[in-house]
Amino acid sequence: MNGLNSQMALFLKRLFRRRLVLLAAVILTVLVISALLAHWVAPFDPSVMKLVRRLKPPSDVNWFGTDEFGRDILSRIIFGARASLGIGFLVVLFSMGIGTVFGLLAGYIKTLDSPIMRLADAMMALPDILLAIFLMAVLGPSAGNVVLALSIVYAPRVVRVVRASTLVVSALPFVEAARALGVSTFRILRVHILLNIASPILVQATFIFAYAVLAEAGLSFLGAGVPPEVPTWGTMIAAGQQYADDAFWVVLFPGLAIVMAALSLQLIGDGLRDMLDPKLRKAL
Amino acid sequence: MAVASDQSAFKQDGPLLAVDTLSVSFRQEDGVSTPVRDVSLTLHQGETLALVGESGSGKSVTSLAIMGLLPRPAGFISSGKIRFQTRAKQTVDLAQLSFDDMRHLRGREMAMIFQEPMTSLNPVLTIGEQIAETVRLHLGLSGRALQAHVKAQLDLVEIPDAARRMDDYPHQMSGGMRQRVMIALAMACQPSLLIADEPTTALDVTIQAQILLLIDRLRRETGMAVLFITHNLGVVAEIADRVTVMYAGQVVETAQTRPLFRKAAHPYTNALLSCLPARAKADASGLRRLVPIQGQPGVFGEACAFAPRCPHVTAVCQTKPPQLELTDGGSVRCFRWRDLA
Amino acid sequence: MWDFFWRRLTGLIVVMALVATLVFFLTRLAPGDPAALMLGDQASAADIAALRAVYGLDQPVLVQFGLWLKEILKGNLGQSIFLQRPVTQALMERAEPTFFLALFSVLIAALIGIPAGIVSAVWRGRLVDQIVSALAMLSANIPSFWLGLLFIQFFAVKWHLFPVAGYGDPGAPLLERLRHLVLPATVLGLVNSALITRFTRASMLDILSEDFIRTARSKGLAEGVVIWRHAFGNALIPVITVVGLTAALLVGGAIVTETVFGLPGIGNLVVSAVLRRDYPVIQGALIVVAAIYVLINLVVDLIYAWVDPRVRAQ
Asked: Which of A31, A129, A246 to mutate to test the interface with C (most CBs of C within 10 A)?
């Protein structure tokens, strides 16, 4: 009855999906490149104050307006991308590192499974942001400690994914065969299993990247993250919120930057997951 | 006597179900596929027709099309008619009915049982409720009368201690018992057509025979027609009056059961028959051996679909697809059926 | 069924014990002496030593851990360094806004997420599915504090529909206090609805492809009955889990939102404790939040068993 209609919908869906992932990749690339080349890309020095031009609305000089010290918000967002995306990226690296090691051990060595997973359960019994702020209280506020705290917070997620994928893969015939041939456990883990679970790990990495960007902003907003003088998207909103009633652009644009970054990372992760082997997809 | 005259009167009205050059298509990501092409079959009241073919031959898709249960929105009837005679003696074309109009026939006048009794029942509802649901809907019963009807259905399919088992959940029953529940569910409103899609395939051999006997007994007692879908010709011999054989989405042969088992007209049917354990030729060591049917179905449209696997293939089979030709008492889709007879 | 319950319960006790251990020893990693912190800058070495003895801080760490655990089991979470009162009392004073905020947020999240997930699964691949999925994706990636600031700007500052911040006067009627929760609960509800939407959609898609759905259709049931009674009746089981999880995580996870809206809840207490390094309060809050998480999980398991006859029978 609506043959053409649903055919169109199917077509649109695929186009929509692919295009959206493509768009997300473009946005992320633009953000990363402008963060890396901030000195050349940013129209102004992010720390130069011009008190006569404080809290000016967006104009053709200051596209995103100026903040309470007359600094150019666009330039601060571009420099802020360095800290925000940089912290996110490092969190991904460290949490992946810790999580993969423990996940492989839990998934492959039976006696270690229960202790590791119970510890992961215990850490996940605390909301991410609460655990993060507790760790920050212990470690003290600094950009490096934000990376450390968030890596610890997100490692259990990686452990779960890696363990689940490892269980799937290690039950496959070729791993059994390798074991029967006397290949060492370390080599089986490294060559046979790690290579085969690389794609779910990659998908999880993009998700954690997105969570980390959001969490860093949250911590910095609370004053428990990066010190306020370092421009990150979170500190910009934290500093700007008291001026929000009269100069809303001060919080609007850094927030949009967070949404753009997190959203494009999620979309890329989703796109990757769709392309995954369906057996491993269940593990996510 | 009264029953007999009734049936003859009915036969003058024509068949209960007449599928006429039915084609079913599926929209896929890379275009449209048509797993069922120009299928025709007829089924009279009180009759059992076996629809036989290997997996992928289109027999299940055909049955889902008759029930109006093609997976939506991908599957649709692309051409043909499905004439069905309702209880009110009206003939309707199921292919043209809306989903809602079909709903009034499904469960009441036509019902279906499926291959997998383990997954075909809802795990969170009691079996009594699952039967009651359809009775309430179509027969409007409630309260005591409803309970009594449900219990009678379970008794009918020989489930022991029916009154108590009504409150059981599917996971508390064995596969054979669940298939009996499925049959009770299908029979709940006394349908005139029962479609059984490989109802015994997933069951133990001893249970298989019991289920076959049960279906046949119910057919005799109620006068319903049974469309029995199977890949197993051994089952066909026990239960069917007539046989329609499908291959690669088309009907290749229709015949009465007995003549078919004596001498099939189509090479594919013969190949299926030679797979039966009782027919397998004894080899040199004296053991009976099952002969697999070699090869894959060919590309549709340019030749006989069975040509790549046919032991009797000739040049003409490669040039164009054969048409269905009438035999005495049936039909066959083969260029050479007369030569091979 | 009871077997299942006890198994779950012991598992949860193990998790709680691990949380307590983590919290205790991680706190010990923090720089600075708690006694010195308590007494402030002007304290003499003798005063500090005396206080260390009072709190048992001069004893071996494992002994301290044992004493601390014993007190927790008795319901004593220690003394706040700055608030001049027991941690339990401080937490109790802050419990109400946090409780109502979590409750309303999870209700809003479920009321948005479950119908959206069902609609999107039933019309899979259609326009409505794409819109729902896109909105869910968007709301999952909006920082809640930023959305909160947007809401305050529009609904409070510009249109004066709701109060900007706070929880009303301490003596204000309950309804007045709850009015202060409308905006924060909506923010948290929206942000948390994404997970419920995606989960409901996935479960419904799984169930809709099951054989018993085809059976239900073959009975001639209306599509609404098939979807609601047969599909959702089964999808509900996993959906309960995710709703429960959301509720559990909201109890201590609303820190940022509580701060934005100036709600005097537990999250707010934790933030000020972190900024003042009031470790007993942080520890106590973590223990309580984890305990609530674990309890909600247990309740979810029980509901699970009650809904699913297969688990009930075990």
From this structure: A129
Nearest CA among B226, B305, B278 for reference residue B54 = B305
**pLDDT above 80 for A111:** yes
Q: B93 in a domain, yes or no?
A: no
Residue A109 lies in a domain: yes
Tell me the domain boundaries of chain C. Answer: 2-73, 91-312
Mean pLDDT is lowest, of A83-92, A116-125, A165-174, C280-289, for A165-174
Residue C306 pLDDT > 90: no
Residue found by looking up tokens 């201690």 in the block: B161
Look at residue A25 and tell me whether its pLDDT is greater than 80.
Answer: yes
Q: What is the pLDDT of residue B18?
A: 94
What distance in Å separates the CA atoms of residue A278 and residue A200, rounded to the nearest whole number? 11
Chain B nearest C-alpha distance from A15 (Å):
12
Residue B85 located in a structural domain? no
By the 10 Å C-beta count (0-12 exposed, 13-18 middle, 19+ buried), B5 is classed as exposed
Q: Which tokens go with B33?
A: 């596929």
Let me know if residue B177 belongs to a domain: yes
Q: Nearest 5°: phi and psi at B89? A: 60, 30
Number of domains in chain B: 2
Q: Establish if B251 belongs to a structural domain.
A: no
A183 located within any domain: yes
Distance of CA A246 to the CA centre of its chain: 32
> Quick one: pLDDT at residue C20?
93
Q: Which of A1, A7, A14 sits opposite B27 (nearest CB)?
A: A7
Residue A6: closest C-alpha in chain B: B73
3-state SS assignment for residue B95 = coil
Q: Which two structure tokens, joined as six digits, stand for A234?
A: 């979170």
Average pLDDT over residues A251-278: 85
Distance CA C296, CA C5 (A): 13
Helix or strand holding residue B301 (H, E): none
Three-state DSSP class for C152? Answer: helix
Q: Report d(CA A239, CA A227) in Å as an integer.
A: 11
- Asked if A14 lies within 8 A of B76 by C-beta distance, the reply is no
Give the tens place of pLDDT for each residue, B192-204.
999 999 998 888 8
Which DSSP helix (H) or strand (E) runs through B156?
helix B143-156
Distance CA C91, CA C186 (A): 24
Domain for residue A71, yes or no? Answer: no
State percent of chain C over pLDDT 70: 98
Give the containing element (helix H, strand E) for B228: strand B225-230
CA distance C311 to C237: 11
Arithmetic mean of pLDDT, A181-191:
79
Rg, chain C, Cα only:
24
Interface confidence (ipTM) of the complex: 0.89
How many CB pairs (< 8 A) connect A and B?
11
Which residues of chain B, if any, have pLDDT below 50?
Answer: 1-12, 282-290
pTM for this model (two decimals): 0.85
Per-residue confidence (pLDDT) for residue A97, from 0 to 100: 94
Mutate to test the interface with C, among A15, A130, A246, A267 (most CBs of C within 10 A): A130
Q: Write down the H helix ranges in B162-301.
A: 162-165, 175-187, 205-222, 233-239, 257-262, 267-274
The secondary structure of residue C181, as a DSSP letter, is: T
Helix (H), strand (E) at residue B51? strand B48-52
Q: Are B173 and B127 in contact (CB under 8 A)?
A: yes
Q: pLDDT tens digits, residue range B331-341?
A: 999 888 888 77
Of residues C89 and A48, more confidence is placed in C89
C91-312, what's its fold? MetI-like fold (1.10.3720)
With both helix axes pointing from N to C terminus, report the angle between A249-274 and A198-222 in degrees, rounded to the nearest 10. 170
- Domain of B290, in residue numbers: 264-340
What is the C-alpha to C-alpha distance for residues B340 and A11, in angstroms, rounded to an integer? 49
Mean of the pLDDT values across residues C208-224? 93
